[in-house]
Structure formats: structure tokens, C-alpha cells
Amino acid sequence: MAMKYLHKYPKKFRGTGGIRPILRVLRTMIKTTIHRPVTILYPYEKEWIPDNYRGRPGLRFDRCIGCGICMRACPTTCITMVEAEDDDGKIVKRPQVNVGRCMMCGYCAEYCPVDAMTTTPDYELAEFTRKDMIYDPRRLAYEGTTEMMEVHLEEHLQSNLDKGIEDKPTAFFDTDRPVLDNDLCIGCSKCAKVCPTSAIEMVVVGQNAKGKDIKRPKLDSTKCVCCENCVIDCPKDALKIEEVL
Amino acid sequence: MGYDSILNWVTFDNPVNNAFYPFEVYNVPYDIGAKLWELLGGTIAWLINLLIPGNGLSTWLVSDAVVNAFAIILMVVVIFAVGFIVNLTMIWQERKVMGRGMDRRGTKIGPLGYLQCLGDGLKTFMKENVVPKSIDKKIYWWALALIIGTAVLAACMIPLSDRWFIMDYHAGILMVYALFALAPFFILGASWAQNNKYSMMAGFRAAELMISYEIPMLILMTAVILQTGSFNINSIVNAQSEMWFMVPQIIGFFTFFVCAVAESERSPFDLAEAESELVEGWQTEYAGMKWGLIMLGDYFRGYVCCGLIVILYMGGWLLPFGYGGTAVPELVFLAKIFAVFFFFIMARLAIPRVRIDQILNVGWKVLMPLSVINLLLVVVMQTGGLI
Amino acid sequence: MSELSRTGYQTDKMWVTMGPQHPFSHGLWTLRIKVDGEYILDAEPEVGYLHRGWEKECENRTYAKIIPMADRLCYSASMTWSHLYCKVAEEALDIELPERAQYLRVIADEICRIQSHLMWLAALGTDLGNLTIFLWCLREREFFLDLNVRLCGQRLTTNYPRIGGVRNDMPYYFERDCMRVVDRFENSLWDIINLTDESSVFVSRLKGISYLTKKQVANLGITGPAMRGCGVDYDVRRDDPYAAYDKLDFEVPVLKDGDAYARYRVRVEEMFQSCEIIRQAFNALQKIPKTAPYRLKVSKNIPAGTHMAHIEDPRGDALMYLVSDGSGSPYRLKVRSPVFVNVSASKAMLDGCRIADIPAVMAMIDMCLGETDR
């Protein structure tokens, strides 16, 4: 490797004042007059943008399970979970995005366990009022979502790499699961109520001294998406996420 | 004159036949002015005559004296209007050429973007007229008026051809130059009156720069005058019918070009308004319309510079190689002005701004000796009978 | 020019406040200068207009949420700052990156370095009064911003590095596009050099102003190209390698002249070297299988302790110091911004210069207020 520019410059003789630059500029002028300049006329012409462009967030309403991972991952807390009617008329929780606050980081799309949140190449977001900047779940829909917009989370476990397994990408919603501290649990079954995928089922494990049922949550690992709703809502902090690394 | 029809008043006489005709040769703007007044004044006279037939006022309105007076006023308006349009075209040319040189498109409004400059000018008129509190009011306004006024006056003094002039006087070129060289004093006054440190520094810079570049320019002009033997612009141009002064005075031409760029305060010599260090230079406190007019005045000065170069070195309105004049010498002159201005733009495109000490070094140590050498060469050639 | 030698003129000294809204200050900061005519006797930078409480705000965020914030530290070198943050977090977690992620980070960093340097050259062009340099540089910069879009989805706030890797693998067309852009850029940079180094006016504006010695540089803590232009042979990429820089072969331009022109030349040469680094990184990437891991799964909490990391920002030696208490958000995150240190040396840099030199000298710092005020 050698220096490319420092070997050539500075030259002892720098032309006569500005003749070289003037000729160079003249060349460009003639070139851009015959052909066309490199600029594009923005409102009339638009640049091609790739699918993975991070514009405003998009939502595929039917896929969403209302887990709220996007809300918690959002650095600017512009996402809130609101109640919305789905196609069957049922009330479900769906994310609402305040695009005026959104910093287009794409975390919501990245961490979404079901690829319902996506990034979209939609970047012309000016509105007349701030209220118009708030996108409700239905307005977040975007036609023509492609695979690039889904932003898959493909992490590798260090333990797998140590074993030499290099082709098993995973993500936290596949591996991390809540574990129960049995001593703290009071069996209130709040976790089962807030679980968006109904992965938690309260099972009777015995009876207490008064003869009432002792309930404990039982986790269906295949359904769980590690949304931490149960962990956050547990009144006694009995649940904890166990990370697999 | 009695009343038969309006054509009684509007006769479109040859203006040279006017008893008070002020020039020795035919003058196009005067002719336009006279004819315009014949239409305008003739209509007024005809209307008055309809109301009060046989009155003296109607006759007086189209008499030789009144036609002459109004023709002169309208002539000046016509000359200014043409100069203004030429200026707009120069601004348009600059913006378009700059755009293409920088790989972008330049102005886009109107046909080929021509109306953009007009729109920008109108925009400055709609701006708020901000005047700072602690300024020297009198100088602030007078200097502004004089900067723009002298620039416009000097531009109007440039004849477009031997039939398009305000006055064909003997010290013509000196007059143009005197009006042109007045600017630094007003700039100094304006910068002082603004009570702003940036303006003051820029004003001193402008005065320094212009005064040190006026001297080589004057010496170079002396060489041309020596070769022609006349201060008259017409004689200077006619002396170049065989050979442009650019050929024998090639050193003088390039030196004058550099001086002219510096004198019109254009980049790369625009240190008086070096926006990267002195905000907007001596125009810092002139906002809105005032700034727009100063900008226009700057372009008028650029026009004068180009005009001087064309008159002194490029044969004015004459075609090269002894082809002499054309049917419309004005267009030849303007084409040459645009060609010279193109190189002004090229210099602005390619060369960054020069520092004040460097520019003074160049002015006094390079351009000054070169201009004297040019003068000596002309003297030698003149006495040797070479030219 | 000392004060003594000019007292014979008996001119009044005056303080001129340049900024916070001034064309030469790229951003909001003030340079107060004491001038004697055109000469500068004293200079005093004032920063802090853009203070957003960045460091404090980090203490309330989880570690992952700080990455997009680190992008906002500098608008034209966002990649290196988020890289730096991820690096300090990785050192705290004591993990080693997958090789593919290392090379991807190097490519992203060098794209960022080139576009940041182009922004600097563009600003230098306007500072010296030539708009052509500005527009030509921005034209080239657009191509690199387009590369950013293809790689990670955004032009400026890239948000690309992650703790334990990078956000996504490069798309299949990225290598082709990147090679095209780099090849095109090298030709265009020679064109731009035609406007700068070939122009005696441009060179004379930079040559011989603002001399700094090695000793001054050491005392003032100046880093980056400004330091290498003064003869100090130090580059974090080579002397304390991170990512994959130790596997790449590149030169660190060092010049002994110590004036503004030397700093300019160091930066231009760095752009050429960055192109070379990108080429080499792609060559190395081809040997790594396409399915190789590029991102490690990391813990959300960082074990308690203090950690420090520094990398070579386009503007100098950027450093972050992390104090973690074992929870999900940092206890303290300190940023050492190179520009903040460099701009505090403006008195030494401007010593003996004229007013007209201020834009040229200050452009060599490549001001970026986002990281200075934090």
C-alpha cells in the first residue's frame, strides 16, 4: 500500500493561477449542457429507494398479536398500545405510532416477533397539524410489504458458536423465556390474563391449608414470544426473564 | 395646426429634423423617445383638441421644443430599461452557467429559468424594511442611494453603438470611469454609518481593494488612449476597426480583465462581502429591498466592467478583422459583453476567494508593473510606427 | 504576530463576536476574537448552545436504546459514534465479534469516514468562497449516502452497529454498488483536486497559516487529521486496532509541515486510503461464507464495572467511558469528543492569523456541534 495523493501533490508548478480549474469547470459545464446534470427535480422526479429503507413504521394488522414489544423497544416512546377493532369486531390491542416523534430507527420492525411491524419506504410525512402525525393502527398499514421491510432478527448464540454451529440464527423471542420463582408467586393469574399469546395457563398444583386451590402459571414454550408482559405485570416480581446466551 | 385626424399630430418625422435636436448624429434612443412622445403627446393633444378645438396647448404639446424635452426624458428611460434587461439577462446567464458548471440545473422558473431573477427581485421588495437603531441615518441612506445611483449612471453612460448613447462627448471614457471609481467612498461611508464591526472591516477592505486596483486600470486605459489619441469612446472603437487593441496590448488586456473582476467586487475578489468571515460584508445591515438594489447595482458595475473591456480592447460594436459595422451594432456589442461576462463567471466558478494581503500583493507587485510595461510597449510601438 | 511588534501602529484592539449565527461556524458556537486591524491577537471559543444532556439522558435508557441516540452525536459521522458505543458495551460484556460483523463494521465506518471528509471538503470550499467545490463534493457524498441507504436503510442516522454485531447482513447488491461508487469516487476526487491543489489561489489560502508544533499538539490534546498534519504519527486504527483493522493493510498519512495545508492534505489522502480499505474488506468478506454469523445474542444487562473504548473518528480520537452497575441501563456514560478538545485549541491555531484565515483554520477542525456539546 502506498500513498496515492501525497505522492503526486503538492506539485511544484501549479499551472498559471486558475487556468487548470477553469478548464476543468468548463469541461463539466459543456458536459452537463449536452447531457444533463446529476441532480433530480425532487417533487417531480424521485430517486429509487431500496426496500430496506427505514421510513415510517408500517403495521400488518392481522399478523399483530398486540404483545407490546415494539412499544417497549421504541427509544422515543412514540408507540402506544391502543384498543382497536379487528375484522371480526373484537377489541384488540394494537400499536399506535406518533410519527412526529418517531426517529425511524426501525427497532419496532426489528424486534417484532411475528413480523407484523415493518419499516416502509414512506418518507413524505408532512402534515398540517401535530394530531395528524399520530398514525392509528389502521393507518399504519402499508401496501406491498416485501421481505426486506420485515427486518428479521438473526442473532447467534455464543454457546452455539463455541460448539461450531454457525447456521442456526435465533432471536430472543425464540430462546428467552420467563421463569417462575415459586416462593414469591401468589397465584393471582394476572400473568395469564396479560399474555397476548395465551401461552400461560394457570394450573392447580395443590391445595393450601384452607382447602383452596393453589394455582401456578404453566408456560407453553412454543407459544411464548418473550414479550415480558407477565414479568412487568407480576405484582410480586415472581417472574423473571431467563436469557439464553 | 388644425384638427382633421390624430395623424395630424403623429407624423413620425425624422428626429434629426427637429430644430432642437441635441446630437450631431442619428440617435436611436432619442428617436424611440421622440416617436413615443409623438404617440403619447399626440394622443393627449388630440383629446384636448376634441374638447376645446383650436386651443394653443395642443399645438404646443407637439411643437419641436416640447417633443425634444420629452424625447430626452424618454430616451433616458429607454436606455435604462435596456440596461436593466441586459442586467437581468446577465444575472440569468450567471445563474444558469454556474448551475451547469456545478452539475446542477440553475434557475427553473419561466422560459429557461429567465423569470427567476425577476421573481427574486420582486421578493426583496416585499421584505420588511429593517433599519437598525443606532446608525448614522443620513449617511446610511445617502451612501446607499449614491452607490446604486453611480452604478446605474455609469452603466447608462456606456454606449451600445455609435447611434445608441446618452451623449457623444469628448471625455467619454473618463466620465464613465470617474462615475465607476466613485464607489469606494460611498462604500466606506455606508460601512461606517452602519455601526457594525463586520461592515466596517469590509468597508475598509473594499476601499483598500478598489483604490489599489483603480490605479493599474487607469494606467491601462492611458495606454489605449495613447494609441487612439482620443478620450472619445466612438474614436476608440473606430480605431479598432482593423485590429482589436487586444492584439498589440495582450498584456494590458489580461491585466485589465483581472482588475475589472476585482473592481466589480466579484468572486474571486469579493472580499468586501466575504460571507464566510464577514457575514455579508459592508451590506450586513442593509436588509430587504436595499440589499436587492445593492445586488442589482453590483451587476450594473459588472456590466460597466464588461463594457469597458469590450470598448477598450475588443473593438466595441465592430466586427473583427475589418468587417466593420452591422445593421444592428448594438447586438454585436451586447454579445461581446455576454462573452466577457462568461469568463467572469468562469473565474467565479473555479477560483476561491483571495485573501486581502494576497490581493494587494498581486495588485501592487504584479498588475501595477504589468500595466506600466504595457504602457511602455505601446509608447515604443507608437513611436516606432508599428501600430 | 505578537502584540508587542504591532504596538507601533497604535490601532484600537477590538473584540469581535463571531457566532452563534455566523456563516463560518458550522453549527451553533461562538468564536470571540480580539483583532488588531486584520490580525488576530486572541481567540476564545464558546460552545454549549446545543447541549442536549446526552450523557444524562443515556442513564435512563436501556443499552439497546442508546445506539440510535449515539447516531445523533454527530450528523456526518454517525456510524463511528454508534460503533464506538457498541464497542464499549462489547468490552463490558467481554465478547468477541463474529468476523463478518467486524468487516461489515469496517466497511460502514470507512463509508462514513469518506462522506464525513467530503462534507468537510465541501464546507472548506464554501468557507474559501468557492461553491463549485461544495457542490461537487456533495454530489459525491450523495453516492455514499445512497450506499448507507442500501446497507442499513437510512442516509445519515444509520443505526447500523448493534451490541454484538451489526443490524443486518449486507444485501446481495451492496458489494457491486459499493465497488462502483468507490471506483467512481476516486476519479471524481481527482477532479475535485483539480479545483483545489491545482489552483494556486486555494493553496495559498491554506499554506503557511496556523502552524502548530508537535509539542503544542501534545499539550492541547489535538487528535485526528489535525494532529497527523503536525507530524504526530498516531492512528487508533493502526496503533490500537479494533474491528478488523489489524487484518487490513493501509497507510496512515502523516505530514511534518504543521500548517493548515498539511491538515488538508492528510484528510484528502485519508479518503483515498479509505477507498482502499473498503476494497480490501470486500476481498476478505468474499472468503467468509455468506451464511456466517454477523450478530451475537447478548445479555440485556451489563455486568458492573468501568470500561473504556476509543476509535478513530473522522475528526479525531473518540472515546467513551462506561460505568455500569449491573442493571439494564448505564450508570454513567462519558463521551470524549475530539472536536471539543480541538476547538479549545483555537487560540493557538489562530495565533498570528488574519480574519480571512479564520474560516480556513477552523474548517480544519471540521466542527460538529452535536458531539461537542452533547
Written overview of the protein:
The complex is a heterotrimer of chains A (245), B (387) and C (374). With 245 residues, chain A is an alpha+beta fold. Among the domains of chain A are: 57-150, Alpha-Beta Plaits, CATH 3.30.70.3270; 172-242, Alpha-Beta Plaits (2-Layer Sandwich). Chain A is 20% helix and 19% strand. A 3-stranded antiparallel beta sheet of chain A has the order 2-3-5. In chain A, strands 1-4 form a two-stranded antiparallel ribbon. A two-stranded antiparallel ribbon of chain A has the order 6-9. In chain A, a hairpin with a 5-residue loop joins β7 and β8 (213-219). By secondary structure, chain B is an all-alpha fold. Chain B folds into 2 domains: 1-126, no CATH class; 153-384, no CATH class. In chain B, α5 (137-157) runs antiparallel to α7. The longest helix of chain B is centred in the first third of the chain and has 38 residues, at 64-101. Chain C is α+β, with helices and mostly antiparallel strands. Chain C has 15 helices and 8 strands. The two termini of chain C are 35 Å apart. Chains in contact: A-B, A-C, B-C. The interface between A and C is large, with 53 and 57 residues.
* Interface with most residues: A-C, 53 and 57 residues
Element order, helices and strands of chain A?
HEHEEHEEHHHEHEEHE
Assigned CATH architecture of the domain at 57-150 in chain A:
2-Layer Sandwich
- Which regions of chain B contain 5 or more consecutive residues with pLDDT less than 50? none
Strand order of the largest sheet of chain A: 2-3-5
List keywords for this structure.
heterotrimer, A: 245 residues, alpha+beta, Alpha-Beta Plaits, two-stranded antiparallel sheet, C: 374 residues, Cytochrome-c3 Hydrogenase, chain B, three-stranded antiparallel sheet, 15 helices
List the helices and strands and how they pair.
The complex is a heterotrimer of chains A (245), B (387) and C (374).
Chain A: H1 19-34, E1 57-59, H2 69-73, E2 79-85, E3 91-98, H3 107-111, E4 117-119, E5 134-135, H4 147-150, H5 158-163, H6 172-175, E6 177-180, H7 190-194, E7 200-207, E8 213-219, H8 229-233, E9 239-242
Antiparallel strand pairs in A: 1-4, 2-3, 3-5, 6-9, 7-8
Chain B: H1 28-51, H2 56-61, H3 64-101, H4 115-125, H5 137-157, H6 172-181, H7 183-193, H8 197-228, H9 233-238, H10 250-263, H11 275-278, H12 289-313, H13 329-350, H14 356-384
Helix pairs in contact in B: 1-3, 3-12, 3-13, 4-12, 5-6, 5-7, 5-12, 7-8, 8-10, 8-14, 10-12, 10-14, 12-13
Chain C: E1 13-18, E2 30-36, E3 39-46, H1 54-58, H2 66-71, H3 78-93, H4 99-127, H5 131-152, E4 161-162, E5 165-166, H6 174-196, H7 200-206, H8 214-220, H9 225-228, H10 236-239, H11 260-287, E6 305-313, E7 316-324, E8 332-336, H12 338-343, H13 346-350, H14 358-363, H15 369-373
Antiparallel strand pairs in C: 1-2, 2-3, 4-5, 6-7, 7-8
